[in-house]
Amino acid sequence: MLRTLALGVAVALATGCASSPSTGLNAEGQAIGSQAAMSNKGLANLTLAQNYLASGQTEYAIDRANRALRSDPDSADVQIVLGMIREKLGDSAGAGAHYARGVKLAPTSGHVLNVHGVWLCQQGKAADADQAFARAVRDPFYKTPDQALFNAGKCAMQAGQLDKAEAYLRQGLQASPENPALLARMAELQFQRRDYMSARAFYQRRESLGKTTPELLNLAISIEQAAGDTVAAQRYMQRLKEQFPDYTPPATEGSSQ
């Protein structure tokens, strides 16, 4: 989903959001846009911190991130990684402080604002998150604005603002027409709006990209059932049973499951 960070050859991390590499620093650790350049030592430590975090070794991750902080105290990317580590440790307040510090250091950086927006949305601060995502999209150096648009749409959906969510998702699809996360979210949104023909169309576009998931197939079943096509619904049910035999659909309201 779409909390992302890429520092040179460092791996990108994602926490419940759309993810693909973004641009903050180039391969030499030099700044792009408003961010401060990192030293080679800081970049190396931050790369290790991300790798350790990705493998679940938080103790080593925080050690390397703190080393990067000592050598590069003005790096917004160091703050973002420290925030991700704090989130992994269950320290949401600490994560928020690091993300806010990152924004202060790089107030126009798209990927920094995107990460902060995701955290704000998770705290129930939809209006503040909306502002962060809007600022992220305005960054001309942010090469994956569709990630921020996906996150903005998802946050608006969670806040019950379906019109705003649809506007964000459509804007994202204009920039990235084959983004699987955007297409799946649009299918879900249209289903919520009871526009089942549109939901089916977006689902089919997503399905054509391959690599389906049990959640997607379950959404397809719901769409076809709501549209009154029992044959198609049964076909998706059979696929779900065959491909994901251990999957249990989430209980709906009023269900005894």
Secondary structure layout:
Elements: H1 40-54, H2 58-71, H3 76-88, H4 92-105, H5 110-122, H6 126-137, H7 145-158, H8 162-175, H9 180-192, H10 196-207, H11 214-227, H12 230-243
Helix pairs in contact: 1-2, 1-3, 2-3, 3-4, 4-5, 5-6, 5-7, 6-7, 7-8, 7-9, 8-9, 9-10, 9-11, 10-11, 11-12
What report would you give on this structure?
It contains 12 helices and no strands. The chain has 257 residues and is an all-alpha fold. The protein has a domain at 1-143: Tetratricopeptide repeat domain (Serine Threonine Protein Phosphatase 5, Tetratricopeptide repeat, Alpha Horseshoe), CATH 1.25.40.10. The longest helix has 15 residues, at 40-54. The two termini are 28 Å apart. The model is unreliable at 1-34 and 253-257 (pLDDT under 50).
State the separation between the terminal residues, measured CA to CA. 28 Å
Structural class: mainly alpha
Could you state the oligomeric state of the chains shown? single chain
CATH fold category name of the domain at 1-143: Serine Threonine Protein Phosphatase 5, Tetratricopeptide repeat
Instruction: Pick out the low-confidence regions.
Output: 1-34, 253-257
Inertia-based shape: elongated
- Into which percentage range does the β-strand content fall? under 5%
| Largest sheet: number of strands, sense, barrel closure | none
Mean pLDDT across all amino acids:
86
CATH level 1 name of the domain at 1-143: Mainly Alpha
CATH homolog superfamily of the domain at 1-143: Tetratricopeptide repeat domain
Q: Which percent range fits the helix content?
A: 55-70%
Number of beta-strand segments: 0
What letter string, H or E per element, gives the SSE order?
HHHHHHHHHHHH
Query: What is the helix tally?
Result: 12
